[in-house]
Each structure stands twice: as C-alpha cells, then as structure tokens.
Amino acid sequence: MELKITDLSKTYPNGVQALKNVNLTIPKGMFGLLGPNGAGKSTLMRTIATLQEADNGEIQLDGLNVLKEKAEVRKQLGYLPQEFGVYPKISAEAMLDHFAELKGITNKNERRELVKSLLEQTNLYHVRKKNLSGYSGGMKQRFGIAQALLGNPKLIIVDEPTAGLDPAERNRFHNLLSEIGENIIVILSTHIVDDVSDLCKSMAIINEGEVLLYGQPLELIKNIEGKIWEKVIDKDELKSCQDNYNIISTRLYLGKIIVHAYSESNPDSFEMVKPNLEDVYFSAIKNAKTVVKSN
Ligand code: ADP
C-alpha cells in the first residue's frame, strides 16, 4: 500500500505558486510532512483529500487515481483538518452516530457498536455524553480522529494536529496516532519538528512549495553528521555571527545564545555537535534559501 504523488503543481489565482512539481512516495505507517507556515502543506493535504484541484500532476493510492476517482477515494480516506469549525451542542456519541449514518451505515446496532469502539479507541468513552462544545483541545482532536476512522480508511490525513494542546494531551494524541499508523498510511502535516521525530518512520521537508528532503529521520540525521557546529555567544555578537557564518538556528539559553552553524569544517572556534532532526530541518531550509539567493 502506498500513496504516490507525481509532478504535482498548483498556482492560486492570485499568482502564489503553492506547489512546485511535488514528487513523493508515501508508504504505510506514519509519514511526517514538515515545513514552515506557508510552505504548501495544507494545499497538498487538501489536494490529496480531494477537496481542491491541482493544475498538473497525478496522485495514486493503491491503483486509484485520486484526482479523478474522488468518490471512491473519499470512501477510503479520513481527514482531520486544522480547524474543525463549529463544535455543536451535541454529544460526541450522537455526533459520531450521525457521521456513521452519513457514511452509509444504516443498521442501528452496527452503528452503536462501531461508535462505542471508536470512542473507546480514542479514550472518549467516559465523556461520550458530554457536548462537543465543552470538550478540551485534546478531546476535540481525539474526536476528530474518531470521525476520521469511520469506515476503516486506508489513508488518514492529519493537518497541524498538536497546535494548542498541552503536553499531556499531545502525548495522548501521539500515542493514538502511532497505534493507528501501524496498519494504514497516516500523513501528519506539521511545523513542529518534535511531532515528526517522536512519531514518523519517514518524512519530507517542504518549503515554498518544493520538497527539499525526503527519507527516514535517522538517515537524514546521519547525512549531516560532522557538519553541525555549536557556539555559545552573547546577544550582541549575534549579528556579526550571522553575517560571517552559515547559522541555521539560534536558541536562548540562560541569557546567552546558542547558535548552530552548518559547515563542512569548523567555522571558527565552534564545537562539533551530534545533529538532531531540528538541525536537519533548519539546515535544509537555510541551504535552500542560500541556493535561491546565489542564483
Ligand atoms: P501551509 O499549510 O504550509 O501553511 P498553505 O498550503 O496554506 O501552506 O499555503 C501555501 C501558500 O499558498 C501560502 O503562500 C498561502 O498564502 C497561499 N494560499 C493558500 N491558500 C490560498 C488560497 N485559497 N488563495 C490564494 N493563496 C493561497
């Protein structure tokens, strides 16, 4: 089972080129699509979810032509958007029952069993009678997953899921996703590097509509070993540091600044550090910008 995206492009009527020739093959399991705001993640997710058209390209899901056979794809797809919109004054149980009916499950007993098992799986059974409008951010996200799981989808798309969740809720949500991701394709779109490093077997980094990197997190980290350099500087040294070295990230620490540079050799009294996924991400984005600038 895989999702194959070939030469996908999209330009909005205002001229913004949101996707530039995107090629990606997404295998079973959790896949992280990582990129800053405005990178094109939602455009890509909505296109895969058959909610908007592309200008060019193809998407295949196990032999299905996603851009053409929309109705068939929708049966096999669960989508959890960034914003669910209004949460009505109706219980989670009643709402799921309603969604299940819309999905074509007409038998009442079958629906009751299904709704019960989804509520249990997402750890919402004890609050099933509570109105959705009174749910916390984490409960809403888990409800979103419950509705996305209706109809046994082959593919689940989750757009920016952990924004606004507290650490415990985020953890619970991650555990739920990784359980689901064992059997189907789950695409997690996010700008939070930790979400990807905690969860995803494979990933891509997207920026300004282009895929910059694609692979397994551990391998991508290995590829930049020996190239990430760290230095602790004073705040007033930052500007000259940024002017002189290829600084990929800065972080405040005890009133000082820890800078990371990407370089084939020691830039100048820096210390080599073991890279992590954040270094992969920031160096990919920074180096892409440098290439654009030098052209
Ligand atoms: P992300 O999800 O990574 O933040 P988006 O796919 O939402 O990125 O946006 C990619 C680019 O396309 C941005 O520059 C955004 O402003 C632009 N964009 C998104 N949706 C529209 C739209 N409906 N009309 C015009 N421009 C859009």
Structure notes:
This protein is α/β, with parallel strands linked by helices and 295 residues long. The chain folds into 2 domains: 2-216, Rossmann fold (3-Layer(aba) Sandwich), CATH 3.40.50.300; 222-294, no CATH class. The protein contains 10 helices and 14 strands. The strands form 3 sheets. A 6-stranded mixed sheet has the order 6-7-8-3-9-10, sandwiched between helices. A 4-stranded antiparallel sheet has the order 2-1-4-5. The chain has a 4-stranded antiparallel sheet with strand order 12-13-11-14. Strand 7, helix 6 (167-180) and strand 8 (185-190) form a beta-alpha-beta unit.
In short:
The protein has 295 residues and is α/β, with parallel strands linked by helices. The protein is built from 10 helices and 14 strands. The strands form 3 sheets. It has a 6-stranded mixed beta sheet with strand order 6-7-8-3-9-10, sandwiched between helices.
The SSE string, one letter per element, is: EEEHEEHEHHHEHEHEEHEHEEEH
Name the structural class. Answer: alpha/beta
Task: Name the CATH class of the largest domain.
Answer: Alpha Beta
Helix tally?
10
On the 0 to 100 scale, the average pLDDT is 91
Strand order of the largest sheet: 6-7-8-3-9-10
Shape: globular
In CATH, the topology of the largest domain is named Rossmann fold
Give the termini separation. Answer: 39 Å
Q: Say which molecules are bound, naming each kind only once.
A: adenosine-5'-diphosphate
Would you identify the CATH architecture of the largest domain? 3-Layer(aba) Sandwich
User: What is the helical fraction, as a range of percent?
Assistant: 25-40%
**Number of domain units:** 2
Cα gyration radius (Å): 21 Å
Number of strands: 14
Q: How is the biggest beta sheet arranged?
A: 6 strands, mixed
Q: Low-confidence spans: pLDDT under 50, at least 5 residues?
A: none
Beta content comes to 25-35%
